[in-house]
Amino acid sequence: MSNIAGSKSSLQWVVHISVALLVMLWLFPTLGLFVSSFRTADQISTGGWWTSLFPAEQNLTLRSTDPDDAGAQTLIDGVYVVEGNLFKAGVDATISVWGTSSRAIDTYVPGDTAELKDGETITVQVNGDYVWTGTTEMTGRGQRVFATSTTPPEFTFKNYKTVLFGGDSTDGMTKAFFNTLTVTIPATIIPIVIAAFAAYALAWMDFPGRALLVAFVVALLVVPLQLALIPLLRLHLGIGIGKGYLGVWLAHTGFGMPLAIYLLRNYMVGLPRDIIENAKVDGATDFQIFTKIILPLSFPALASFAIFQFLWTWNDLLVAKVFLIDATGQTTVMTNQIVELLGTRGGNWEILSTAAFVSISVPLVVFFSMQKYLVRGLLAGSVK
Amino acid sequence: MHPALQGIVTIFLGVGGCLAYFYFSNQFIDKVLFPSKGVNAGRNINRANIVRPWLFLAPALFALSLYLAYPVFATLWYSLTDRDKGNAFVGLANYYQMMDDPKFWEALKNNMLWLIIVPAASTAFGLLAAQLTDRIGWGSIAKSMIFMPMAISFVGAAVIFKLIYDTRPADTNQIGALNAVWMQFNGGVGSFILLRALPAAFLAFLTVGSLWLATIMIKGFSSFTTILRSLFGIVLIGVAVSSIASIYGLFTATLPYGEPQTWLTMPFWNSILLMIVLIWIQTGFAMVILSAALRGIPEETVEAAIVDGANPFQVFFKIKMPQIAGTIVVVWTTITLTVLKVFDIVFAMTNGQWETQVLANYMFDKLFRGNDWGVGSAAAIVIMLLVTPILVWNVYNVRKEMRS
Which residue out of B1, B5, B10 would a mutagenesis test of the A interface target, given it has the greatest number of A Cβ atoms within 10 Å? Predict the structure, then answer.
């Protein structure tokens, strides 16, 4: 806009940097959870997740093999030699400086040979390989080496194994995952069917009281579902549905209905009048018009609502807590499982972050693959 | 039966049942009840067309009435009765009991804070993000990154932010980002600028801004909106006064440098930290809607302003803002509705402890932990009352739109 006036402004850089900062600020929290879910409990408690992304430089106290161990010491040309690697097997670290005294930990660089007491020497390489020699037989514990080393970032899938395949009922998310799926899919599909017919009637059929009904739907759009909890729980208990899947499906269907009708009606009203009138002239019934013309044309709106309802039912905690989860806890959903983990495992971030990431991964996939429909639905759904 | 199987059966029964209902009920009125043949063909067709809309509407109306309309009245009734006395009518006793509960006032006060801060901050950030991302090539990627938290559940967000607010003992590395940042401050010049001078500057800006808006609000006189505007003006003056008080507080407070803080147990600040979670989620929503509105502004108005020598800030505040004012109101009210129902965040992060209670969680607490249905219903009615102005406003607008 500002370049219309001929000033391809220096402000442009400020804009780029501000947006980058804003995006980083918004991504940082989620990224933290994501990275933490790939770290072990020890790693999480030793430092912030942001440090794990870079090679970590740390001062280590390492020790060579004890010379008393069987086979550790060999006699080569009259010199006693202990060879090995200072790091445990599988550790991939590089030493930058090292020393043999805690007061001078940076005396030598890798490849140097240090003189020890009694004519012993030790040579340490970059990767931790050492050669420790002595003119007499060496006894006691292994030689201590103080090294400053850089360890590359290290991540593990262990947490996901525990959470998904561990089979533990408190940490495991498998059951909760499938329960959530069981709640979500019928609760997404059924309202669409019911609402689509009603939306068609409100958009294209003429009858007295239509405007009043639209107003009724808009009014119900904002009714907090907090009000529905007690009366409906009583109703469900009263008519024998009790707490369970049927109850939660019905509740989600009812609570999603106003938005579904509102979204679909707004979309259907905008469809070209000619098509519908031509079909009527050709003798199509309302039912045929609806199923053959309106439904296929309304696909974008149906998709928008489906995404909304899916995200809302997947992420819901309140409705599940009230209408689904009974004392046995067999029907727990992921959100509830996570809240319980927060209580029992408040400090175990490796389990918590993994469980949370499992639960948000599905909505994130849906979000990124169907963002177009979500945006369209938002634009149509906010009451103007 | 296995729940998954039950789910599949339900889908088939639900969807199939609905379709069968619609199909056969249409067949029924066309073929049996009002056949379009014979002597009364014309009259029957008309009658069928009168009945048909209600066939289409019946299941939806049933669901709406039973699951949303009926509960409003039922809850109102429960709030006036006592379950322990056999559901006897007790008048306003539940409300009096609720008003004697300090937790209720705490929840109401916090809700008011949420209602001011969250919609304002989300809309402001959303507007900023929308305006900035519209001007650059990779704007759509940036947008979807800022929009992403919309897909994350409140519970998931609570875990994400609990990690940020985490506290470890002073002599160990902090794993929570907030404490890690806090430990960098040592009371030197940098700390003074970042923790006192900059916030004070922001608050001063807020004071001037809200006083300026307040004068506009109170100065303008139009028939219907006068009360609303002066109400808004009073709120703005309140914001200004508390900002000035906070500036004074900023410079007199002694800050505990070098000690990791347990953020979620600090009254007032912990509420703000919980609000940040919701702001983080809702900003994307505001951005998407406002970005569409900004793109809908006719180019000519902007071009004309630039030709007349307006600078970018003038273009934004004097040309663009007035044209998207309606959308800003929509965004604001939508976020307000979300705020009024906020439950999961508080429930998962503090459960209303340390003075973070809000109405929705207070109500849940009364209902399912205190088992006090009367007071719980009364709290629900308070939430409903807070929503009612928006309800009336929306209905008024839709009716106006439908008439035109």
Answer: B10
Tell me the ipTM for this assembly.
Answer: 0.83
Q: Which of B17, B10, B67, B5 is nearest to A186 (CA)?
A: B10
Could you give all domains of chain A from N- to C-terminal order, each with its CATH number?
10-52 (no CATH), 55-151 (no CATH), 161-381 (1.10.3720.10)
Tell me how far apart the 2 most distant CA atoms of chain A are, in Å: 111
Measured distance CA(A212)–CA(A205) in Å, rounded: 14
A79 touches chain B (CB under 8 A): no
The size of the A-B interface in CB pairs under 8 A is 351
Q: What is the pLDDT of residue B278?
A: 93
Q: A47 and B173 in contact by Cβ < 8 A?
A: yes
Whether residue A228 lies within 8 A of chain B, CB to CB, comes out as: yes
Tokens of B56: 């289409």
Nearest to B276 by CA among B165, B398, B166: B165
Contact B114, B120 (CB under 8 A): no
CA B344 to chain A, closest CA, distance in angstroms equals: 7
pLDDT in tens, B137-184: 888 888 889 888 988 989 999 989 988 888 887 777 788 888 888 877
DSSP line for B272-283: HHHHHHHHHHHH
pLDDT in tens, A289-327: 888 888 888 888 888 889 889 988 999 888 888 888 877
pLDDT for res A1: 45
Is residue A70 pLDDT above 60, yes or no?
yes
- Please judge whether A228 and B4 are an interchain contact, meaning their C-beta atoms are less than 8 angstroms apart: no
